[in-house]
Amino acid sequence: MIMNMIDLSKRPVVSAIGHVAIRVKDLGAAVEHATTIMGLRVSDRTADRVDLTEGLSHHSLTYIKSDVEAIDHMGFEAAGPWAVEEIRRRVKDAGLPVLSDRPFDECLSDGFVFEAPGGWAIEIYSDMPHDQPLDWVPSGVRPRRFGHLNIAATDPDAVIKVMCDILDFRVSDHFRGGAFIRCNPEHHGLGVVKGPGKLHHHAWEIENMTDLAHLGDLLDDLRVFMLAGPVRHGMGNNIASYFEGPGQMAVEYYCDMVKIWNDETYEPGVWSEDAGDLRWFTRWTQQVPSPDMRIRQLGLPPAERDGASLAAID
């Protein structure tokens, strides 16, 4: 019997942006928004924490009750147990702070948490349970899957360097002092641009533009406007709409994002806001959110941690 041998040294160590955990003041309102507008389902609940999912995964979004609204952590799915150990080695060699030698999330066991530049807690794991039922009817607009995150970083180069050198992200496009980077064929899993040190939005893939119409109608029933869209972005070519979520976070629903299948031949683009070029944000209209609009004012910083980081991984 001939076995196909896979050279793991050439395989990227991170395969997906798995989830995000957000600290909010009003836990009940956050869960209400996630279930009635976003169409998510509660998969686990304690007195001060609720996990939510759109599909088989145990969770893609977590809300944690807190006196201060902030980003608790971001979860990146490793390509396997081998990749978790490889990332451990790279993090240790780079001297990055380790916040926990096991995942923060109780349903996970194979992984750890480190701190990226800017104070962002990154949870690395390989064993997210895929044990949730699919035969349920959402009350909101249920997305297909969790897609990506966008950060406005005070030092985007430092964040991008860690993501690319330690976690094998690849640059798809350069923009606003940073870059949109990917960990799988989808154009971006993480946007990192120059800004005030906040996670601006979390994004979810939907089936098609019909879902955006359903979302708009649902928000209209609640007398709430979208923050922006629908637009077709230049970067990523995805069709997107944005609405406000709990904790002063923006939420993006999108479809039709371009896939990059050949890392060897792909050449990153360079997008500019100079001379009124709006195509980075929209190919369809001449309207880009101005600095005084609500969407430009949203976002949350990383949570401050109690106690010192672990010195190293054992």
UniProtKB/TrEMBL annotation:
Residue stretches spanning the membrane: none
VOC domain location: 16-127, 145-256
Gene3D superfamilies, per the entry: 2,3-Dihydroxybiphenyl 1,2-Dioxygenase, domain 1
Coiled-coil stretches noted in the UniProt entry, renumbered to this chain: none
InterPro entries: Glyas_Bleomycin-R_OHBP_Dase (IPR029068), Glyas_Fos-R_dOase_dom (IPR004360), VOC_core (IPR037523)
Name of the protein: Unannotated protein
Organism: freshwater metagenome
